[in-house]
Design goal:
The protein is an alpha+beta fold. α1 packs across α3 and α2 crosses α3. It has a 5-stranded antiparallel beta sheet with strand order 1-2-3-4-5. The chain is 49% helix and 18% strand. It has 2 domains: 77 residues, no CATH class; 75 residues, no CATH class. The longest helix has 33 residues. The two termini are 29 Å apart. β3 and β4 form a beta hairpin.
Length: 173
């Protein structure tokens, strides 16, 4: 199973909220929670979960049952992904065929979920932080970026996008 960068970024946000102690002790439970919340394991029965873990991991049966037991003990304390968050993550995946995967860029107070998408013959840059994709700009055939005035980006976010567009020259442009 290929895992997209934006899924990892979402998971990292959850792990950060648990702190170092929670991270060190419950990483496997947090990751399993993410898999279930994102509905990657479509069979929620215990047998279905065991089958999924047998097929998708190299865990032994004992490790699988231990994980499921620990998950059941802790699931009431784990974050439950809202419909909105799941729709946003799904929307990023479905609405966009990203050539540069969506990634959180910026510091804590000014983070944006930014990606570069090919739409037909056009290349667009989007911010998916809010409920709707917001067009940051477009890339012309020579690799120039045409920024939209209404989206305010920090200098690190602009540098990130400029470097990503430069890396596309000769590959896609």
């Amino acid at each position: 199973m290929e895992i997209k960068d934006y899924e990892i970024d979402g998971l990292i946000q959850t792990i950060k909220e648990t702190g170092i102690k929670g991270l060190m002790k419950y990483t496997d439970v947090i990751v399993w929670n993410h898999i279930l919340e994102r509905n990657w394991c479509s069979d929620s029965s215990r047998e279905g979960q065991i089958k999924f873990l047998k097929e998708e991991s190299d865990m032994s049966f004992g490790e699988i049952t231990n994980l499921l037991q620990r998950y059941n003990e802790w699931k009431e304390y784990l974050p439950s992904y809202s419909l909105g968050l799941n729709q946003r993550l799904d929307g990023v995946n479905k609405q966009s065929q990203s050539i540069v995967p969506f990634k959180w860029v910026g510091n804590e107070s000014n983070k944006k979920l930014i990606g570069i998408v090919k739409e037909g013959n056009d290349i667009k840059i989007y911010d998916s932080t809010g409920k709707q994709l917001m067009l940051i700009g477009s890339v012309d055939e020579s690799g120039g970026i045409h920024w939209n005035d209404y989206v305010k980006l920090s200098t690190p976010q602009q540098k990130y996008l400029i470097n990503k567009v430069k890396s596309l020259k000769g590959i896609i442009l």
